[in-house]
Amino acid sequence: MLAFRSLVAVAILSFASPALAARCGGDFNTFIASFSAEAQSAGVSGAVVSQALSGVTLDPAVLSFDRRQRYTFNKSFEQYVATRVGPGRINGGRAMLQRHAALLSRIEQQYGVPRQILVAIWGLETDFGKGDMGKLPVIRTLATLAHDCRRTELFQTELMAALKIVERGDLTLRDLIGAFAGEIGQTQFLPSSYIKYGVDFDGDGRVDLRHSTADVLASTANLLHTNGFKMGASYEEGSANFDAMREWNRAVIYRKTIGYFADQLMGR
């Protein structure tokens, strides 16, 4: 699901209004030096800034990928869902519902988001954590996109959030690996969403959305709950819950696919 998550990242980011002002374009090293100073002013330690940004280089492949995207779907819902929700994935999702039944019950009680929605998102994004979570260094990816003047302030916000993930001790730089717009982990959170909605549900003192199933599912539930998702109500197109999922993904076809997959998991 990485390519599509990269597409919708731009739509999600378009609602941000950061107050960062490192000058985009021009010399990349000058931009990084300016941003580094801003990061330290924002409370990121000099050690983390130096470790993350010293020697970072522009990634032309990220720019090329970003510039050739088309932010629309050309498939019908029926065509799209047929490529995303097949018998193997449905059976895998049902196995996850059984394996993590106790955990999912706790999450439902705390956040009021049904287990089938969480498992459907998990399956669509990274095949329940077994699929591709991205292979790119998030700091380099976001620094590249922030330096590009098309959406510099938006990606500066994401770069700052990525540094704060490291500062908080949630992930090391070695583990800060993601997709082409900086999405991280088993349900592909952008760094700003990681900071805003991430939950330490396994109680180990950090939010780990790459390795901790408990943190992944609870954080996904927290995002939906915070944006108005209600337990027991319909999540069909046109419902309040369907609208609440816009924070996860603004594309109607993708939210319909989540609902369809969730219903299949429950035998509906």
Automatic annotation (TrEMBL):
GO biological process, one term: peptidoglycan catabolic process
Signal peptide feature range: 1-21
GO molecular function, one term: peptidoglycan lytic transglycosylase activity
Classification via InterPro entries: Lysozyme-like_dom_sf, MltB-like, MltB_2, SLT_2
A Pfam family: SLT_2
Keyword list, A-Z: Signal
Domain Transglycosylase SLT: start-end pairs: 28-235
Name this polypeptide is given: Transglycosylase SLT domain-containing protein
